[in-house]
Amino acid sequence: MRLILVKPTNATRRLDSTGEVFQDGDHERCNSGDPSPPTKTADVLRYQYSGTSLEPLTPQQETNRLQLLHSAILEDAISKDSKEDSTKANSENLTREEGSAPQKKTKDISYRLGQRRVLFVKRKQLSDYALVCGMFGIIVMVIETELSRGFYNKESIYSFVLKGLISFSTTVLLGLIVMYHAREIQLFMVDNGADDWRIAMTYERIFFVMLELLVCAIHPIPGRYVFSWNTQMAFSYTPSVGDADVDIILSVPMFLRLYLIGRVMLLHSKLFTDASSRSIGALNKISFDTRFVMKTLMTICPGTVLLVFSVSCWIIAAWTVRVCERYHDTQEVTSTFHGAMWLISITFLSIGYGDMVPHTYCGKGVCLLTGIMGAGCTALVVAVVARKSELTRAEKHVHNFMMDTQLYKKVKNTAANVLRETWLIYKNTKLVKKIDHARVRNHQRKFLQAIHQLRSVKMEQRKLTDQANTVVDLATTQSMMYDLVSDLQRRSEDLDRRIVVLEEKLDSILLSVQSLPVVLSQAITKQQEDFLDDLAYRVRFLTSSLGSERCSLPARQLCPASAAAETSYS
Q: Predicted confidence band at 168 (pLDDT cuts at 50, 70, 90)?
């Protein structure tokens, strides 16, 4: 007895042997020879073969057969799905391996460049906002300090409002500075491909960030706080005591926020934003920082830079001196803005008339710093004026040409004077009957003066020639020498190539000479063979000719050898 396992397939419909249409997906036909075999799936599951006939199955056997059928169907479906999934996964893996590397690389590079551009823009915006907040705090601080002196006191509501604005702007400024340095760290991570932001946090960076936050955090706080300020008057040397506001100590350092101007100038500079300029600077190992931008500005517009810097220093120093001196200046000499401006001006220019002097150590320190900055600015002004007063290259060439022409004329005139005085000396000593010694001495004196003048003019010509050899001329000479050396090198290379060609030709000639004996021997051997063949032919021909002359016609029949030879040679 054997069981029939029916496995459904996706075959098309077909006819069985009896002509009945049925589905291959239902069952497979069993050709057992039975006159009425089962044609349905249920009929197949209810019968089994027993020898050559079909017998009905018991319910238990039908249940077992149905379970076997279901398990076969599930195994087939699972195997088919697993094969399809594996094939699809393999194809996807191959495709990913072929295209993932360049695509991932391209995506990473494009993403980093885009992120870097976005970070540059955000950093510039944060720097602009920080400068606006810093300048706003300084302006409000100056207004509050001036108004609290004559219009209201430090305990007024107006003072609280203005100081509150200063505190609010300072808080925003600190937040912007933190965000700015966060963008700096992100740029460092993008440029260096770092994954952890702590890699960029060096001790130097942490120190400068904390110092910047400390400088920007200084501002006058709301309220009235005073301290006793003792000093000694300048001319009378009498002690002076006054109650000063703590806001002076907290207000003057707020001008240190002006360093943000340099940062904004750097981030808005075309040299910094232009990619080509940054590439050229990187190739030449030049770092684009604030110092480099200031140098370029001093080269492009030195007068404007010095003027703006000097006027700004004057105004800030004058206001600081006024604030420091107003608690001890009873005569109101340096405590007024005009008096403070005059004091700063004469200190900046290193004049120092002595008509007014600061009384406090704060004013003295400001005047000392003003004098140092004035000396530096004066040196810069002298350097700028000297550089602007120099002749250009074209002007130098024109000037040298004109001076050379004038000196050439002087040389000719002095040489003519030397010849004239020589002739006059000869005339007054040799061609006259009575020698006039006074005239001779006069001409000799003029002769020596002409020689001395000629030497002086020759020396001026040499000096002019030496001055004409400037750095530009030396660079031109160096360029000419480089061209000459390049031409010589090119000719040397051409000569080397020709020598190589000659060597190759000599090698070919040497090979030909070495093979000449073999060629000659072959030619001589061939000629000898040709000569011997010709000689043999001639001998045979003569022999046959002599034999033919001796034999007559009837006798020629008796000479078969000669006849055969004649026939062959004919």
A: very high
